[in-house]
Write a structure and sequence with these properties.
Layout: H1 9-19, H2 24-31, H3 37-43, H4 48-54, H5 57-67, H6 74-81, H7 86-95, E1 122-130, E2 133-142, E3 152-154, E4 162-167, H8 172-181, E5 182-190, E6 195-198, E7 206-210, E8 216-226, E9 238-249, E10 254-265, H9 274-286, H10 295-350
Antiparallel strand pairs: 1-2, 1-5, 3-10, 4-10, 5-6, 7-8, 8-9, 9-10
Length: 351
């Protein structure tokens, strides 16, 4: 996790003499720019001087913009600057994995009870890459969600398409390669509570070809986590944020994006309502965060476990309802038999 804490006093005294000989401009303009975020966070723990230099907002703003081009947006920049520790806090939120058990901590400033009135507006910052080449970025702000209507965020209007200089797959080999070459990031931002989390597995968990309404390539990304204590055995014990990315073929034989959307499903695959989803999003925002590395593998593992649990949950419901259905069918058949017998007796008596 990219979290920086001030170094201990003892550590500062050991290294201050050697570090103080390097001019701060050299550190900021020539050394820090060569480090990635994890290395910079580690370097900041060496001494108080390095901690101060490594906390520079410009450095972390550049990290955010280079990692997620969608954050280089006036609205996003204003929101990020309002975070408790600015772009450094936003980077830590967006790069870490939302934990499987989403719980609040007692010392968290966001551990207040869930208040849906405070999360009536969410911002989505989405970036798509192909073989590490930037393909598409967009920022969408969703003002409100219906209490009963399904939670869904559409990134593109129905008539919008985004062309990409990528050949359309003509066989299954090319289809399989697409799953390894495409990465997607979907950062959901709460501008009021000043928290963010990335809901994508980065790599698709499903790549398939669809034929209706026309030939399409459909990719599915997502993230699964536990919705919190007290939900054991319920339909929302585990929930899945699903990201759908749809491609179609242009006349020139290349792909273009026709749909990008986010939804939330419960243990039975039902889309959750806006009110339910906002409560889960709040829990996810303030929950513990996991390791920075291995998001692709962790995302696929969670998805496969979720699908297996969902299958078992649905089969258990069917096994419970089957005897009820059998008894009901037997009861209906018995009543039909009685009515048919009475009808036959009456027919023979009068005719």
């Amino acid at each position: 996790m990219v979290v920086m804490h001030p170094p201990l006093v003892a550590e500062t005294t050991v290294t201050s003499s050697s570090i103080s000989t390097v001019h701060p401009d050299i550190m900021e303009n020539h050394i820090f720019k060569l480090l990635d975020a994890s290395a910079l966070a580690s370097a900041s723990c060496v001494s108080s001087q390095l901690y101060s230099l490594a906390s520079d907002e410009t450095l972390w703003t550049n990290f955010c913009n280079s990692t997620w081009p969608s954050t280089d947006n006036p609205r996003i920049r204003r929101v990020i600057s309002s975070f408790p520790k600015g772009p450094r806090a936003f980077f830590s939120d967006a790069v870490t994995n939302p934990d499987t058990i989403s719980t609040t901590t007692a010392n968290s400033s966001s551990s207040s009870p869930v208040n849906l009135d405070r999360t009536s507006r969410l911002i989505s910052a989405v970036d798509i890459y192909y073989q590490k080449r930037h393909v598409f970025s967009k920022v969408v702000e969703t003002e409100s969600f219906g209490n009963r209507s399904p939670f869904r965020v559409e990134l593109l209007d129905p008539r919008d398409t985004v062309p990409a200089r990528i050949p359309y797959p003509v066989d299954e080999r090319m289809m399989l390669e697409l799953g390894d070459r495409f990465t997607l990031s979907w950062i959901l931002i709460d501008p009021i509570r000043r928290r963010a989390m990335n809901l994508s597995s980065y790599k698709p968990v499903i790549v398939e070809r669809r034929w209706l309404p026309g030939e399409q390539v459909h990719m599915r990304y997502g993230w699964v986590f536990n919705s919190g204590p007290g939900e054991e055995g319920s339909a929302t014990e585990y929930v899945k944020f699903g990201i759908s990315l749809t491609w179609e073929e242009c006349q020139s034989g290349v792909m273009h994006v026709t749909g990008v959307s986010l939804d939330l499903e419960d243990m039975y695959g039902n889309q959750m309502s806006g009110k339910e989803s906002l409560a889960i999003i709040q829990k996810g925002m303030v929950g513990n965060r996991g390791s920075v590395k291995g998001r692709e593998e962790e995302g696929r593992r969670r998805y496969e476990e979720y699908m297996e649990m969902r299958r078992e949950r649905i089969l258990s419901v069917i096994s419970i309802k089957e005897p009820e259905r059998f008894h009901h069918s037997l009861y209906v058949a018995f009543r039909l038999f009685i009515f048919a017998t009475l009808g036959l007796l009456l027919f023979r008596r009068f005719f």
